[in-house]
């Protein structure tokens, strides 16, 4: 009489257990990879705005990216992603063109720091003004060359930039409702950013740092964020502190 736990049965059980463990491990690995690689809403929008697909990006996505540019952390992510897209090889010409379109939109609608950084990285745009790529016998570089020239013109012509930002602000205001008490409602945001603040959270962002070079030689410089010539969070020259302002009001009463 053979043993209840013969070697043959043990081997079969071991084989089944091995298969089960292998399948379970693959499932755990798959779930883990999906969890770790899950893109944030901003990352999804950036990928959509600079995709290599043969169609344009909805204005709603560009608008959301521009809104995020007023947040310090998001700003760094946006600009790093943008300069990387602009440094793609010529065969990715669609992505390069879309990145230029996004940069143009940010110059008109985003944080003013975008203007400063565009000027600092003008070399990348000068290179793109000479962009050349032929696909199936057709020149695919004309649009990129013209768009790069337009972006440079916007960044270095204060009057043109002011006019374009004011026009963009008026267009945004069309989609902003006025509440019963006069408060603004809707998806629009002011030219200086949501609630005139660099961050949508209560955290303080007085400085930022970023680094790296792309293949076009553009450099994301580290330093303080500035608006109207002063660091974010810094008081205007001659401005009173909250305590001093309160004391002055009490004396006037």
Order of helices and strands: HHHHHHHEEHHEEEEH
Q: Count the DSSP helices.
A: 10
Report on the biggest sheet. 2 strands, antiparallel
How do the strands of the widest beta sheet line up side by side?
1-2
* Share of β-strand residues: 5-15%
Radius of gyration: 27 Å
Shape: elongated
Terminal Cα span: 108 Å
For the record, the CATH class of the domain at 42-175 and 207-226 is Mainly Alpha
Q: At CATH's second level, what is the architecture of the domain at 42-175 and 207-226?
A: Alpha Horseshoe
**What share of residues is helical?**
40-55%
How would you characterize this protein structure?
The strands form three sheets. A two-stranded antiparallel ribbon has the order 1-2. The protein is mainly alpha-helical. A hairpin with a 5-residue loop joins strand 3 and strand 4 (184-186). It is built from ten helices and six strands. The chain has a domain at 42-175 and 207-226: Alpha Horseshoe (Serine Threonine Protein Phosphatase 5, Tetratricopeptide repeat). The protein is elongated, with a radius of gyration of 27 Å. The N and C termini lie far apart (108 Å). It has helices spanning 7-36, 41-49, 59-68, 72-86, 93-109, 113-120, 122-128, 142-156, 158-173, 242-252; strands at residues 134-135, 138-139, 176-178, 184-186, 226-227, 230-231. This is ENTH domain-containing protein. Residues 34-165 form the ENTH domain. GO terms for molecular function: clathrin binding; phospholipid binding. It comes from Toxoplasma gondii p89. It holds the Pfam family ENTH.
């Amino acid at each position: 009489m053979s043993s209840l736990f013969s070697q043959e049965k043990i081997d079969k059980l071991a084989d089944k257990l091995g298969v089960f463990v292998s399948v379970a491990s693959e499932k755990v690995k798959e779930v883990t990879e999906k969890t770790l690689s899950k893109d944030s809403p901003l990352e999804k929008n950036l990928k959509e705005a600079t995709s290599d697909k043969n169609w344009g990006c909805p204005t709603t996505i560009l608008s959301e990216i521009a809104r995020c540019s007023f947040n310090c952390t998001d700003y760094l992510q946006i600009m790093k992603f943008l300069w990387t897209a602009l440094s793609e090889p010529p065969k990715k010409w669609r992505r390069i063109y879309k990145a230029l379109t996004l940069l143009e939109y940010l110059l008109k609608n985003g944080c003013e720091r975008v203007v400063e950084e565009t000027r600092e990285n003008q070399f990348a745009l000068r290179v793109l003004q000479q962009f050349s790529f032929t696909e199936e016998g057709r020149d695919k570089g004309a649009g990129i060359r013209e768009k790069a020239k337009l972006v440079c013109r916007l960044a270095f012509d204060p009057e043109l930039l002011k006019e374009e930002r004011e026009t963009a602000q008026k267009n945004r205001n069309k989609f902003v409702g006025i509440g019963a008490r006069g408060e603004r409602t809707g998806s629009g945001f002011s030219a200086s950013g949501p609630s005139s603040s660099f961050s949508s959270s209560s955290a303080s962002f007085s400085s930022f740092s970023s680094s790296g070079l792309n293949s076009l030689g553009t450099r994301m410089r580290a330093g303080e964020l500035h608006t109207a010539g002063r660091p974010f969070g810094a008081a205007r020259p001659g401005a009173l502190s909250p305590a001093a302002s309160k004391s002055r009001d009490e004396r006037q009463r």
